[in-house]
Specification:
Layout (H helix, E strand, L loop, with lengths): L3 H4 L6 H19 L11 E6 H6 L7 H14 L1 E6 L2 E6 L3 E5 L3 E6 L4 H9 L6 H6 L3 H12 L10 H7 L7 H9 L1
Antiparallel strand pairs: 1-5, 2-3, 4-5
Helix pairs in contact: 2-5
Length: 182
């Protein structure tokens, strides 16, 4: 699952990750239904149903408010890379709009959609539902990393490398343990 988006060490909140997981599931489902890859060179529109927005949130009464914050952060979070002939700058999502009774509509720019497609292509041995239910961004990130190596059967790294991957460098070992256990 190593791609530009997954190797970037962004500090996502739990709700930002949940939106991103929904985007990946949407793309994976479209691919499984035989949708042409040319679709992913266009602007993508998807809806996260209202029931799903509230179901995964530990406090359903505040789910809509918190998803608004997450959508805003993803909209202003930069995707930036060099191309053969120049460069590209965009947001992780183009827009997020909550419609009462329907859910959260998410728009993905045609400039960013191919990056999501690349992640979704390699979206094997990874359960988005499990990842969405995790209550900590650290546990989500750790789960992603473990899933990435599941087919190999093992992986090793030092506590320092794990702390780096979880964006906990300089934290005491106890903080690392608490972050993973959340």
């Amino acid at each position: 699952q190593s791609t530009y988006l997954t190797d970037a060490r962004y500090s996502y909140t739990v709700n930002e990750k949940r939106i991103l997981y929904h985007v990946l599931v949407f793309i994976k489902n479209a691919m499984n239904e035989g949708v042409s890859e040319s679709m992913f060179r266009e602007t993508l529109y998807m809806t996260i149903p209202e029931a799903q927005v509230k179901k995964l949130h530990p406090d359903p009464d505040n789910a809509v408010r918190d998803m608004r914050v997450a959508a805003k952060k993803l909209r202003i979070r930069e995707v930036s890379y060099d191309t053969e002939g120049g460069w590209m700058e965009a947001g992780m999502i183009s827009s997020g709009e909550y419609i009462k009774g329907k859910g959260l509509e998410v728009e993905i720019s045609r400039k960013v959609a191919p990056l999501y497609l690349e992640v979704a292509r390699n979206f094997t041995a990874f359960s988005a539902l499990v990842a969405m239910t995790l209550q900590s961004s650290y546990s989500q990130r750790f789960y992603e990393f473990c899933s990435r190596w599941k087919d190999v059967g093992f992986f090793t790294f030092t506590p320092e490398d794990l702390a780096f991957r979880l964006k906990l460098e300089g934290s005491p070992a106890g903080e690392l343990k608490k972050a993973i256990e959340k």
